[in-house]
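Let's practice the habit of predicting before peeking. Look at the sequence and jot down your guess about where helices and strands might fall. Then scroll down.
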Amino acid sequence: MATSTRRPVIAGNWKMHLTVAESVSLAAEIQNRCARFRDVDVIVAPTALAVYAVAKRLADGPVAVAAQHCHGADSGAFTGEISPPLIAAAGARYGIVGHSERRQLFGETDAGVAGKARALFDHGLTPIICVGESLAERDAGQTLVVVERQVKAALEPFAATEVPRLILAYEPIWAIGTGRTATPAQAQDVHGAVRALVARLAGPEAAAALRIQYGGSVKPDNIRALMEQPDIDGALVGGASLTADSFARIVARGEEP
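Done guessing? Here is the structure:
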C-alpha cells in the first residue's frame, strides 16, 4: 500500500436498492464482517427511507452512515427533498453530493453541489463530493479541464482550514456501473492533479490532508492496485457494496476479511 498519513475511507453507495429491512440486515452483516478493520473508515449509504433504521442499528459501532443526496436549504416547501438537519437527526454522519447520476439525470450544477456540500458541513456532516468526466470528455482530452472546474466550484465555499475535513471522490462517469475501470495509473493521474490543484487553492497542508476516493466499478480484485497509488485514499463503491462479502473484501483491500 502507498505510504500516507491519510486514513483510508471506503464507502458503499447502495443507490435505489434494498428495502429498509434488507438495508438493516446488510448493514449489520457488513458491521460484523468489518468490525476488526480499525485502520479504515467504513461508510454505507442506504436510501433516504433506510438512513434512520440503519444508523440506529449501527449506533456506537465502527461503520458510519451517509445520505445519498440532500437539499441545500435547512427546511422549506421542497416536496420530496431532505435537508442536512434532517439527515443529521436521522443519525447519518456523511452526505454524498454531486454524484454523476445526480448531475446527469437531475440537472445538478457545480454551484448547486457546492452549496449542498457547504450545508452538510454546517450541520456537522462530512460531505463526500463527487467529480468526474464523461467518456466523450475523456476522449476529447478534457478530463482535467472538467474535473478541475468541478473541484474549484466545490471548494469555493470553504476556507483552507476546512478543506481537510471534506472528502472528494473522483468517479469517471464512463467507469460507473459499466464494468470498465480506470487503470490505477489513469486514476492516479487525476488524483494527483486534483491534489495539486487543492494545494494551489488551499495550500499544501490542506492538500496533503484531504482524502480523495476513487469510484467506478471498484471490486475486490482491483481495490488493492488502486489503493497502492500514492494519491488514492479509498473508494466509493457501487454495485460491489450490495453484498457483505464483496464489500468486506474491498474494505480488506483485496484480502480475505
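How did you do? Strands lie at 9-13, 41-45, 63-67, 94-97, 126-131, 167-170, 211-215, 234-237.
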